[in-house]
Amino acid sequence: VANALYIMCEVLQALDYAHRKNSPDGKDLGLIHRDISPQNIMISHDGEVKLTDFGIAKAATRLSKTEPGILKGKFHYMSPEQAMGQQLDNRSDLFSVGTILYELLTDERLFKGKSNLEVLEKVRDPQVLPPSRVNRALSKDLDAILLKAQARDPGQRYQSARDFLMGFAVYLHPNA
Questions:
Q1: From residue 21, how far is each of 26, 49, 61, 93, 111 by CA, in Å?
Q2: How far is Cα 125 from Cα 133, in angstroms, rounded to an integer?
Q3: Is 35 a catalytic residue?
Q4: Angle at Cα 16 formed by Cα 35 and Cα 122, nearest 5°?
């Protein structure tokens, strides 16, 4: 659990930086990674965690736009709004972080299906069990953090990577 939380806290710090990045003239870039997945998280021999492959990242200032309904990313780690081809913001990346953390803590894939279409249907309407029901060693407090990250409605999720990190801080240091 400690290693999973460490890795995902490092990923959230990278996302906080990317999501708050400004252009040289001070304008918010509106950067969204759109492909947060285990394959894009690298861990060095020294324990450094790196978020890679911003290849399909989207910035609000880009001249070219992705056509509505075009899906880019790995289906198992998409947010519901991404799986439906809707407008995305930083909360989509946070849903993906929650999916990876769920899988790290339970050792089970969250959205299973026999085909990509079946996986997409499950992502579009996520039915997420509290992770402590899968791994009894997990606490109800950790359930609350993960279920908030996995909310179908982006308005019910953490609103920023920093907010998500604060959820971990309260969990890890309840008396601080």
A1: 9, 19, 12, 15, 31
A2: 20
A3: yes
A4: 35
Under 8 Å between Cβ of 79 and 91: yes
How many residues are there in the chain? 176
Write the burial class of residue 67 (CB in 10 Å: 0-12 exposed, 13-18 middle, 19+ buried).
exposed
Distance CA 58, CA 63 (A): 10
SS3 of residue 60 by DSSP? coil
Structure tokens, 92: 């989509």
Residues 57-82 have pLDDT tens digits of 665 555 444 455 555 668 999 999 99
Rounded Cα–Cα distance for residues 43 and 66 (Å):
31
The SS3 call for residue 103 is helix
Which residue is listed with tokens 């790196």? 50
User: Which one of 16, 25, 28, 35 is the catalytic residue?
Assistant: 35
Kindly report, residue by residue over 100-158, the tens digit of the pLDDT.
Answer: 999 999 999 999 999 999 999 999 999 999 999 999 999 999 999 999 999 999 999 99
3-state secondary structure of 139: coil
Report pLDDT for 59: 59
**pLDDT at site 63:** 41
pLDDT at 64: 42
